[in-house]
Amino acid sequence: MGWFDDNFIPALDGVAYGLLLFVVAAGLTLAFGSGGVLNLAHGTLYAFAAYTATEVADGSWPGLALAVLAGIAAGAAGGGVLAVMTAPIAGRGHMAQAMLTFGVALVGGDLLMTVFGKDDPQVSVPSALEKPVSILGHNYPGYRLAFIGVAIALGVVGWYVLARTRIGAAVRASVDDPEMLAAGGISPARVRSGVLIAAGALAGLAGGLGAPIIGPSTSVANTVLLQSLLVVVIGGLGSVGGALLAAILVGEVQTLGVTLMPDFAPYLMYATMAVMLIARTARFGPTGSRV
């Protein structure tokens, strides 16, 4: 029981951290897998939403709701801008998209520092969510526990929309058979633009909800982007379930690694990615087919 007691809270933190990465990575994999855009400015959208939410939140319940809505609006607006910017280079391959969105990320990062400053702001949440909740004899922040529940619900809703609705069918068809989609009177280009806006909204939602967990700072955009890319790589592109499991794994490696192996913590996530890719290649082959 000693090891369990010592590491229960870090393990629970890993779940919360991982689920936050899952919400961000869901938008990233949606933009790339369904929208066809390699968006290296996705972390900047998170940071923009987190800063916006921090400015709006005032510690009240209406303030929290407004902060989340403001984050979603900021992320969706950013996704719309990226949809317009990437449309002319849609046929030039992912390298052109990567260069363009990387440039947007650099400009966006400088703009955030200019507007909000270099100091890391404090995020206000309702006092009821600041109170600790007792779990198995351990006190855990109420906000993080509430976020875990919200993130799981978001994952279920996202899976249902993509797998069981006409909107999800149109999104899948825009990738698998855009000619047939166009023959049905639906513009694949508009679907891709909508996907990028939705992906930005997910980044904004993550920024609005996640600001008290991964708060706005000068480095948060890069941190969130890199760790979300890890989730996508480990979980598999386009797989909601795979992204969820990968996000939990990355979150646990991050938080338990800092607790148990602080000297090696910065390298553990990348070592985990390497092991998972080697294991996947051994099982399915280098092209992803089962061997």
The tally of structural domains comes to 1
Distance between the termini: 42 Å
Strand content: under 5%
pLDDT < 50 stretches = none
Helix content: over 70%
For the secondary structure, the number of strands is 2
Strand order of the largest sheet: 1-2
Features:
single chain; 291 residues; mainly alpha; 12 helices; 76% helix; transmembrane transporter activity
Please provide a written account of the structure.
- The protein is mainly alpha-helical and 291 residues long.
- The chain has one domain (2-284).
- It is 76% helix and 3% strand.
- It has twelve helices and two strands.
- It has helices at residues 2-33, 42-56, 61-86, 94-116, 127-130, 142-164, 166-176, 178-183, 188-210, 220-235, 240-260, 265-284, and strands at residues 132-135, 138-141.
- Strands 1-2 form a two-stranded antiparallel ribbon.
- A hairpin with a 2-residue loop joins strand 1 (132-135) and strand 2.
- It is globular and about 60 Å long.
Give a quick summary of the entry.
The chain contains twelve helices and two strands; from the N terminus they run αααααββααααααα.
List the helices and strands and how they pair.
Layout: H1 2-33, H2 42-56, H3 61-86, H4 94-116, H5 127-130, E1 132-135, E2 138-141, H6 142-164, H7 166-176, H8 178-183, H9 188-210, H10 220-235, H11 240-260, H12 265-284
Antiparallel strand pairs: 1-2
Helix pairs in contact: 1-6, 1-9, 1-10, 1-11, 2-3, 2-4, 2-9, 2-10, 3-9, 6-7, 7-9, 10-11, 11-12
